[in-house]
Specification:
alpha+beta, 6-stranded antiparallel beta sheet, 4-stranded antiparallel beta sheet, 8 helices, globular, binds adenosine-5'-diphosphate, binds magnesium ion
Length: 232
């Protein structure tokens, strides 16, 4: 596909394996993986006009192949409700990331819709030297970082495998709706896992994929962050 090869060619010509959030989202979106609407702004003015186009509230994030953890460097601003807030956030993101990463190549700032609160889950793909691509599923944030509450399957992952993966994490009751909280759509998560498995099969040049987090709702699930690392 034209756009896909454009993204891959650019990374290759710049001798980098890390794709930005905007590039990563574009690639997975083409594979039918649901992604929050995201656009790249190259100036403050463009950030404001794209915000108006997308509709407030929006989120702004630093878009750089050299910055892996965007929020660690003051590179993520959530819930921006007006043009003034977007303009200020743009300036602040640029100054704090340039201070922390003076050598980083910055493509601009991603502008995206602020997703309503949902249950945060993550789906990842990495390559095992013996088994090849492996898909990981877990709950987002503390659950995966501290508790390592994840399930793993080797690609290809069928819908039945995906169903098992979801049910076997310890945090599964949270997905069923805990103490009056809305449940997450299990079918939507199964479909996403199968989709990521197919993406891994069809794109051997992708070394790692992280959808972290995905917001799960009672009727759908949508990724708000994506990160791809290509093979050398
Ligand atoms: P990074 O992982 O690089 O630090 P993220 O893009 O994951 O940055 O953003 C950090 C956190 O901000 C996410 O874990 C999520 O909780 C929240 N977030 C990111 N994008 C959105 C969005 N579009 N809508 C709502 N919340 C978001
Ligand atoms: Mg993230």
């Amino acid at each position: 596909m034209a756009l896909q090869s454009k993204i891959l060619d650019r990374a290759k010509s710049e001798a980098r394996t890390a794709l930005t959030e905007v590039e990563s989202k574009e690639l997975v979106k083409q594979a039918g993986i649901p992604i929050i609407e995201t656009k790249l702004a190259r100036s403050k003015k463009e950030a404001i006009s794209l915000s108006k186009e997308i509709g407030f509230p929006v989120v702004l994030k630093i878009n750089s192949p050299d910055i892996v953890h965007k929020s660690d460097s003051g590179g993520v601003r959530l819930g921006l409700a007006s043009a003034t807030q977007v303009g200020n956030a743009y300036r602040e993101i640029m100054s704090s990331t340039k201070q922390k990463y003076p050598k980083a190549i910055i493509h601009g700032v991603s502008v995206q819709k602020m997703a309503p609160p949902g249950i945060e889950v993550i789906i990842g793909m990495s390559k095992d030297p013996q088994f090849g691509p492996v898909i990981m599923f877990g709950l987002g944030g503390v659950m995966v970082e501290v508790l390592k509450d994840v399930s793993l399957r080797i690609v290809p992952v069928t819908q039945k495998d995906a169903q098992e993966m979801i049910k076997e994490i310890k945090g599964y009751p949270l997905l069923e709706g805990y103490r009056g909280q809305e449940p997450a759509s299990i079918p939507a998560l199964e479909e996403l896992i199968v989709n990521v498995s197919q993406f891994a099969e069809q794109n051997p040049q992708v070394k790692e994929l992280d959808l972290n987090p995905i917001f799960a709702y009672k009727d759908k699930a949508i990724a708000v962050d994506a990160r791809i690392i290509l093979e050398e």
